[in-house]
Amino acid sequence: NGQFGVIITHNHAEDALYVTRKLIQKIYAVSLQMKFARLTCAAGLLSIHKFAQFSGSQMLSKTQLGCQIAKHRGLYHAFLCDNNETFPCLPKPREKNHSPIESRQRPHKATNSAT
Hints:
about 50% helix, about 0% strand, about 120 residues, mainly alpha, elongated
């Protein structure tokens, strides 16, 4: 898909781990908000851990790391990102009609989904 971002040249393993931690927090928050199944979320976190180990040695760019994980887990459209400079290929999500408070009250149940 072409190149994204800047290749990490210093402490790339540390960098990848930091970015990965941020991604895990974001993806977990998004998966709760979008009421994904718990299994999907767990599978996502597992593959992110493995991907992070790989990316640390392969010197992937931060953006590539973020985008590949997001696309791979099917979270591309739901992915929340504070920093468009870091993840320029991720579109800002459009606000849905769901309420985050409702999701926070029942994070373990996927019932009551409004579509």
